[in-house]
Amino acid sequence: MISTFFQCIAGWMRRYEGVGRKLTDKCNCRREKVYSGIGGQAVLEGIMMKNSEKYAVAVRKPDGEIELLKEEYKNSELMKRLSGIPFVRGVFNFVDSLRLGMKCLNFSASFYEDEEETQMSESKEKLVNTLVMVVSFALAIGIFIVLPYFLSSLFKKLITNSTVIVLLEGVIRIGIFLGYVSLISLLEDIRRLYQYHGAEHKCINCLEHGKPLTVENVKESSRLHKRCGTSFIFFVMLVSIVLFFFIRVDNVLMKVGLRLLLLPVVAGISYEIIRLAGRSENVLVKIISAPGMLIQRMTTKEPDEKMIEVAIAAVEAVFDWHHFLQEAFGIVCEDQPVRKEEMEASSDGKADESDL
Ligand SMILES: [Zn+2]
């Protein structure tokens, strides 16, 4: 239960991988980076990959087999319309990704439930899940929004400049976030979740750099990606520093309340920034993406080959990478699958830790 709770909060960090779009018009440029448009999320002992309206969850079951769930993800007409409106779409996409993320996390967790939990009736399980969501959300708001505000106000006697206090609040928030991310990595489940997160990025990077999706190529690819949810959270913290400057009321309740009310605005703006960052190789974009990429070194870890195999299974369930490589890079791959043989051939190799 406790790890489900942490995964719930951790899961929020990783659902923005898919917000960039395809740039297939660059198909003549060989070996240049081309965005695939696929995104994903790490789940318990597995990976969820999403490609437009299709998504798949691949989970390594306790018996060692990979279980694959493949489904369509249909957005309602209202959602489709809302997702076309800049600044509004970020909020709805965020809520939407939480819902899908939770569903996939539950699917993966169902293979690892202990007996006590399996005996729960379906309605009771739903109630528990909702409770976990609500408690996680309330705690996240308390820890990342309200606490930094109160901690920074402790310095008001020492620092009279309100601009410095708002800046300090932002710094404390980033500090708490970094502390949280590294602290939960001490949990075995979360450490493995970070490894699967790394596997997910590595698969996407492998394809977007024009390499066939094999275990060896995935291992060599970077585990950092500009469109990552970790980077999104970092942008949220940066944007909130700027927006919270404008809260000029004296009442403490009003101050906290306005911070909460501004959250959708913060999320909306951050979403637009990460969308832009995912599409551009501009120097300025690289500079603002750098801190998020640095934090990804904490939220991703080098996966082992078995994890990479799971990630590849999830990608292949929703994405025709042979076609993508041919269209975007002009690479024609020989007929696959080669995964199994390759796994055997490279099973004594160690995971590449050079990115750490
Ligand atoms: Zn990510």
List strands and helices in order, with pairings.
Layout: H1 2-11, E1 39-43, E2 46-51, E3 54-60, E4 66-72, H2 77-82, H3 89-109, H4 115-118, H5 122-153, H6 162-184, H7 188-208, H8 215-220, H9 229-244, H10 252-279, H11 283-299, H12 305-318, H13 321-329, H14 339-345
Antiparallel strand pairs: 1-2, 2-3, 3-4
The chain binds zinc ion.
Zinc ion binds at residues 14, 17, 197, 201, 225, 228-230.
If you had to describe this structure to a student in words, what would you say it looks like?
The chain is of the alpha+beta class and 356 residues long. The chain contains 14 helices and four strands. The longest helix is centred in the middle third of the chain and has 32 residues, at 122-153. The chain is globular. The relative contact order is 0.17. Residues 1-6, 8-29 and 338-356 have low confidence and may be disordered. Zinc ion binds next to helix 7 and helix 9.
List the main descriptive attributes of the protein structure presented here:
single chain; 356 residues; alpha+beta; 4-stranded antiparallel β-sheet; 4 strands; 60% helix; disordered N terminus; disordered C terminus; binds zinc ion
H/E series = HEEEEHHHHHHHHHHHHH
Helix/strand-derived category reads alpha+beta
Helicity range of the residues? 55-70%
Number of domains: 1
How many DSSP helices? 14
Described by the principal axes of the CA atoms, the overall outline is: globular
Cross-sheet strand order for the largest sheet: 1-2-3-4
